Amino acid sequence: MSTTFSDHRRPRNIRLGVLGIQGAVLEHERSLRKSLKELGMKGDVKRVRYEEEIEGLDGLVIPGGESSTISRILGQKKIREKIISRAEEGMHIMGTCAGAILLAKEGGTAVDGSDTQLLELMDIEVERNAFGRQRRSFESYVDTNIAKRFPGVFIRAPMIVNCWGKCTPLGRLEEVIIAAEQDNLLALVFHPELTSDLRIHTYFVQNIIKKYKK
Amino acid sequence: MPLDLKIDDLRYGSELIKRGFAQMQKGGVIMDVTDAEEAAIAEDAGAVSVMALEMVPADIREVGGVARMADPAKIKEIIDAVDIPVMAKCRIGHIAESRVLESLGVDMVDESEVLTPADPFYHVDKTDHDIPFVCGCRNLGEALRRIEEGAAMMRTKGEAGTGNIVEAVRHQRAVMGEIRELKEKEKHELIDVAKKHGVTLKLVEEVAERQRLPVVNFAAGGIATPADAALMMMLGTDGVFVGSGIFKSESPQVMGEAIVEAVHNFDDPEKIAEVSEGLGKAMPGKNIDDLSEEERLQDRESSR
Predict the structure, then answer these.
(1) What is the pLDDT of residue A214?
(2) Is the pLDDT score of A3 beyond 50?
(3) How many CA atoms lie within 13 A of A3 on its CB side?
(4) In this predicted structure, what is the pLDDT of residue B287?
(5) Which chain A residues have a beta carbon less than 8 Å from that of B47?
(6) Which chain A residues touch B11 with a CB distance below 8 Å?
(7) Residue A102, domain extent
(8) CATH number of the CATH domain containing A18
(9) Regarding beta strands A168-173 and A176-182, do their DSSP bridges make them parallel or antiparallel, or are they unpaired?
(10) What share of chain B is helix, strand, coil (3-state, %, to 5)?
(11) Is B285:B163 a contact under the CB 8 Å cutoff?
(12) pLDDT tier at A110 (50, 70, 90 boundaries)?
C-alpha cells in the first residue's frame, strides 16, 4: 500500500531516484544522500531505469551525460511517458546539463539536428553545446537565486536561450540563463553533482520535504 | 555560434573539467570510426562518443608498418558529421600529434598503444593540455603512472583488433585485484607500492581509501559481441570502447545498437539474449598465443 503526502499517518521516508541510463548517476546519488543527511532526513536514494521504478518516487534527478544517447534509450522504453505523467502529477525533477536539455520544450537547431526527443515539460528553449567543444568547457563561480557564488562546472554545456510562461530564470552568467525553475521542475546547465557544494541538491530535497509536510 | 564569455575567474582545462568530461561518458559505448558515414551510423546506434582514426585496429594489424594519427581532414569531417563528442588517437609520447588534435577541437585524446609509439622514454605530459586524455593500462601500476601524468580517464588495453576479450578481462581483473589488496596495507606498505610503481604516496592512498581509480575506467581491446561488453560491465568497468567490433562485423548498425543495449542492461541476461539474436557474423577473431611479440600491442609502454 502506498501512502501519499496528504496522509496523516506516520510519514514514510522520501524516495528519490536518479535516472540511471548513462552519465553522472553515482555522483547525483552521493550528493542526494549527503543532502538528506545534512537535513537530518531519512530517505531512499536509488538508481532508476525502468517504468515501474518511477511510480513511487517523490523526486527524480535526470543527470548529465550525452542527451542524444539518453533520449534514444528513453524513447525506446515506456519510462519516458511515465516520467512525463508523474511530472504532471507533481513529482519533482531536477535536470542537469543533458537533463536540462531533456526537460525543455524547445531544442534549438543543434538539438533538432540530432533527433533528440525531448520530454517537453518546461517552458524553456535550450541550445546544445552552446559554449563550444570540450576545450571551451570551464569552471566559474556563478550566482543563482538558490546559492550565491556556487562553483559552476560547465562541460560541453547547453544554455537556456529562452524562458517563458510559468518558468522563471534562477541565474545568469553574463546574459546567459544557466538555471530555471517551473513549479516542481528545476533545470541547470551545469553540474552541481561534480562538486562537494550541496546547496543546490539540498534546495531540491527541501522543496520535496516542504510539500511532504503540508 | 559558440558564445565568448569575458569573465575573469573562468578556468579552462582544470582537472575537474577534464575528469568531469569522462564522468559524462559513463554507462556509454565509444565507437571507433574512420569517416563521416561511419560516425553517423555510430551516433544513430547510440554511441556516447566516436573515436576518429585512420584504420580500425584489425586493419592496422593487417596492414602493418607505422600507424599514426589520422588525417586532420578526416577528423574535421567526423567532427562536422556528429553532435556527440569526438575523440582521436595520438601515438604514445607524440606531443606534436596531441597538440594538433587539440587544435582541431577534438574533445578527448587517446594516447594509444594501438598506434606505433613515438617516444621510447616518455608519455605525453597530459597536465599540459586543456583537453582530457584517456590512456590504456594492463595493471594498477600502469594506471597510476598514467593518472599521475594527467590522464583523466583509463581503459584496459586488452589486445586491440583481435576480437578476443581475454586480455581485457585479464587487465580489468588485475587492476581491481590490486586495488583490493591495497585495502589491507599499512602506511609503510603503501609507501612501497608507491615506490614500486614510481608514483606519489598521495595517489596510492587515495586509491586504497576509495577502493577505485580516481578517474573513470572503461573496457577496451577485444570487445566483439554484446555479451563481451556486458562481461566487462559485470567486472566493474564504467563503460566500453568498441574498436573493430562494430565496423568489422556483418551489420555495423545492428551490432552497434545491440552493444549499446547490452551495456545499459548488462545485469539482465534475458535482454542480452534478445539483442544478441541474429546479429550476423561478429568480427573474425585471433588467438593471443598466435601473436608474435611485435604483434602484442598491449606491451607498448614508454619506460622512464
Answers:
(1) 61
(2) no
(3) 12
(4) 92
(5) 69
(6) 138-140
(7) 13-213
(8) 3.40.50.880
(9) antiparallel
(10) 45, 10, 40
(11) yes
(12) low
Shortest CB distance from A138 goes to which of B12, B23, B47?
B12
Out of B16, B84, B260, the one facing A194 most closely (by C-beta) is B16
Q: Would you state the pLDDT for residue A73? A: 86
CA atoms within 13 A on the CB side of A128: 26
pLDDT for B216 beyond 80? yes
CB A88 within 8 A of CB A54: no
Is A4 part of a structural domain of the chain? no
Q: How many domains does chain A have?
A: 1
The answer to whether B89 is a known catalytic residue is yes
CA–CA gap between residue A202 and residue A208 (Å, rounded) = 10
pLDDT above 90 coverage of chain A, percent: 79
Pick the closest to residue B135 from B87, B102, B180, B173 (CA basis).
Answer: B87
> What DSSP designation does B284 have?
P
**Which grid coordinates are listed for A128?**
546544445
Q: Which residues, including other chains, have CB under 8 Å from residue A8's CB and lie 6 or more apart? A: none
Is residue A115 assigned to a domain?
Answer: yes
Specify the pLDDT at position A2. 47
Whether residue A6 is contained in a domain is answered as: no
What was the ipTM of the complex prediction?
A: 0.93
CA dihedral (B190, B196, B197, B198) positive or negative: positive
Which three cell numbers mark A75? 524513447
Tell me, yes or no, whether A8 lies in a domain.
no
